[in-house]
Amino acid sequence: MSVNKEVKRVTTNTIQKMKEAGEKIAMLTAYDFSFARIIDSAGIDIILVGDSASNVMAGHETTLPITLDQMIYHASSVIKAAHRCLVVVDLPFGSYQSNSEIALASAIRIMKETGAHAVKLEGGEEVLESIKKIVSAGIPVMGHLGLTPQSIYKFGTYAVRAKEEAEAEKLKKDVQLLQEAGCFAIVLEKIPAILAKEVTESLHIPTIGIGAGKYCDGQVLVMHDMLGINTEFHPKFLRQYLNIFEQATEAVGHYIKDVKSNDFPNESEQY
Ligand code: KIV
Question: Which ligand 1 atom sits closest to the C-alpha of 50?
Answer without folding.
Answer: 1
